[in-house]
Amino acid sequence: MNAQHAAGYGLNGSHGDDLFSGSGAVDMAVNSVILNDYNRIAAASAAGAVPGDASNAAAIADLRTDLTMNGGTFDDAANDLVSQVGHDVQEAKTYQSHQTDMLAYLDNYRESVSGVNLDEEMVNLVKYQAAYNAAAKMITMGDDMLSTLMNMI
pTM to 2 decimals? Predict the structure, then answer.
């Protein structure tokens, strides 16, 4: 776009200005010279055609459909980029969902191995209480038998 824009002429006769400044997508911006003076927008393709000629502006607009990017157009490249971003987002969501499921599974597994289950502890308490009562009855019965035996002698 900068090369095509620099080949054109602005309303004030300017020629050779880049439309964008910066070295990449991170710092790309409209050239401050053009922002300060819109008459420097090179819409005409020849100095004598100013004003009224918009052939350079049309050529800049046509760049989006020209075969320029690895045998494709800028539109194709933009569509491919949007598709790739969409695919990456979907893949990230799937990965995040899987990781959430794995975290829940591992938390449940940890709780089943080391956690305290109140229902299980209540069952064990009742079981130990019944065993204690049975042992107490055995000791009482043994004591009664020993008392009876001692009284016989």
Answer: 0.46
